[in-house]
Amino acid sequence: MAAFKEFGSYDAVGLAELVAQKDVKPEELLDAAIERVEAVNPKLNAVTATMYDEARATIEAGPPDGPFKGVPYLLKDLYADYAGFPTTNGSSLYDGMIPDHNTTLVGRLRGSGLVVFGKTNTPEFGLTVTTEPRRLGPCRSPWNTDHSSGGSSGGASSAVGARMVPAAHASDGGGSIRIPAACGGVFGLKPTRGRISLGPDMGEGWAGMSMQHAVTITIRDSAALLDVVAGPAPGDPYYLEKPETPFAKEVGQDPGKLRIGFSTVSPAGGPVDAECVTAVQNAAKLCESLGHDVAEAVPDYDNELMRTSAGTIIQASTASALDAAKAFLGRDATPENVEYSTWLMAEAGRRTPAADYATAIRNIHGVSRQVVKFFETYDVLILPVLAKPPVPIGHIDMNSEDVGTYVSRLFEYSPFCQMANATGQPAMSVPLHWTPDGLPVGVQFVGRYAAEATLFRLAAQLEQAQPWKDKKPPVCADVV
Question: Which of 12, 52, 141, 366 is close enough to 167 for a disulfide, judged by CB 3.0 to 4.6 Å?
Answer without folding.
Answer: 12
